[in-house]
């Protein structure tokens, strides 16, 4: 009976099913919306869910929303934007894990060949 209470409480307190969705799926969906490849988006989402707490993920989400306010290109997000937003979170683990996810999932651009 306890799982039913927890699920119901989650829906009642948060007021929306999206808040109860798997965090990695929400991250992946958001990144895909900004133009990242589906496999890379899924990889980043899984890495961040595994290595950051729900509170840290919420801080990252708030920082991302705040950074997008007044943006002249709101439909685009570069890797640099993503890492820069993570750096605005006060918890030092957040930008570290975002950078690790970006590198590990192949979304950090290689330097140009000379």
Shape: globular
Element pattern in H and E = HHHHHH
Distance between the termini: 63 Å
**Mean pLDDT value:** 76
Specify the helix fraction band.
55-70%
**Tell me about the biggest sheet?**
none
What class would the helix/strand composition place it in?
mainly alpha
Number of strands: 0
What proportion strand? under 5%
Number of helices: 6
Radius of gyration: 15 Å
Fold and architecture overview:
With about 110 residues, the chain is mainly α. It has one domain (about 20-105). Helix content is about 65%, strand content about 0%. It contains 6 helices and no strands. It has helices spanning about 1-15, 25-35, 40-50, 55-70, 80-85, 95-105. Helix 2 runs antiparallel to helix 3 and helix 5 (about 80-85) runs antiparallel to helix 6. It is globular, with a radius of gyration of 15 Å. The model is unreliable at about 1-20 and about 110-114 (pLDDT under 50).
Q: Secondary-structure map with pairings?
A:
Layout: H1 2-14, H2 23-33, H3 38-51, H4 54-68, H5 79-87, H6 93-104
Helix pairs in contact: 2-3, 3-6, 5-6
Summarize the structure.
With about 110 residues, this protein is mostly helical. About 65% of the residues lie in helices and about 0% in strands.
Task: For this entry, give a set of tags.
globular; mainly alpha; 114 residues; disordered N terminus
């Amino acid at each position: 009976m306890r799982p039913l209470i927890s699920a119901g409480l989650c829906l009642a307190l948060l007021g929306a099913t999206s808040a109860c969705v798997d965090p990695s799926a929400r991250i992946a969906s958001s990144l895909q919306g900004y133009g990242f490849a589906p496999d890379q988006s899924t990889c980043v989402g899984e890495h961040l869910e595994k290595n950051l707490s729900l509170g840290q993920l919420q801080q990252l989400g708030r920082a991302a929303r705040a950074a997008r306010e007044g943006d002249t290109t709101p439909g685009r997000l570069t890797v640099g934007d993503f890492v820069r937003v993570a750096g605005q979170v006060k918890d030092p683990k957040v930008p570290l894990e975002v950078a690790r996810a970006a590198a590990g999932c192949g979304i950090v651009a290689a330097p140009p060949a000379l």
